[in-house]
Amino acid sequence: MAGARAMFPLMISVLPFGLIAGVVTASLGYSPWIATALSVCIFAGTSQIAAIQLVDDGAPLVVILLTVLFINLRFMMYSAAIAPYFRGARRVVKAAVAYFLTDQAFMIGLAGFEGRATRRRRVAFYLGAAGSLWAGWQVATVVGAVAGASIPPDWGLNFAVPLTFIALLVPAITDRASFAAAVTGGVVATAAHALPWHLGLIVGAVSGIGAGMLTARLLGQRQSAS
């Protein structure tokens, strides 16, 4: 219950995104059942939208998997950061923690772990927070998919996708390295937009990661020299 209460304020921003994910899936002609299955299996908004668009474009499976992988690379860092709080837990517990991991669950989890000395209390708090977010996301996706099926195509709801990505990107630009990564990735992805199966997204992602790492390294060397 404490985890669910801590997560509740963030649901205001999460639920509209779930609605968009469902609406986009329906606007591409897929049933609410497909939208629900996609939401349960992937449980990551940007990846869900990217994956269903690639499926609709007939992209090969390897391209779809690589795209989802690059979009979700940040979760490797998140999981490494919270792993010490679950040391000694059973594998099934760690698997549940990994499945429910989101940006919001990571942030709320870290804030709540400090005041909970035992692993059992940390697991309960985390699953309460992340599980409530999961339930709200699934409901929002279904509602969006059902409502989206009746929305006229000329409303252009797909335009909400890039707007959502921009809203997620801007707060993440916190230093010069992240700025370099964002600019480089955006420019390269735009230049490679004509590549088939949205391969420009992967090329842009790799270029952005490389630019961010190079910038961070150069800045670190400059600080060491000074």
Give a summary of the structure in a few sentences.
This protein is mainly α and 226 residues long. Helices cover 75% and strands 0% of the residues.
Helix/strand layout:
Layout: H1 2-7, H2 11-27, H3 32-42, H4 45-56, H5 61-71, H6 74-82, H7 91-99, H8 103-113, H9 119-148, H10 160-169, H11 176-191, H12 199-225
Helix pairs in contact: 2-3, 2-4, 2-9, 3-9, 4-5, 5-12, 6-8, 8-9, 11-12
Explained architecture:
It is a single chain. The protein is mostly helical and 226 residues long. The chain has 2 domains: 158 residues, no CATH class; 54 residues. It is 75% helix and 0% strand. It contains 12 helices and no strands. It starts with a helix and ends with a helix.
Q: Indicate the percent of residues in helices.
A: over 70%
What pattern of helices and strands is seen along the backbone? HHHHHHHHHHHH
Estimate nothing, just give the exact number of structural domains: 2
Distance between the termini: 50 Å
Kindly state the mean pLDDT as a whole number? 83
Rounded Rg: 19 Å
Main sheet characteristics: none
Provide the low-confidence segments as ranges: none
Tally the helices.
12
Question: Top keywords for this entry?
Answer:
226 residues; mainly alpha; 12 helices; 75% helix
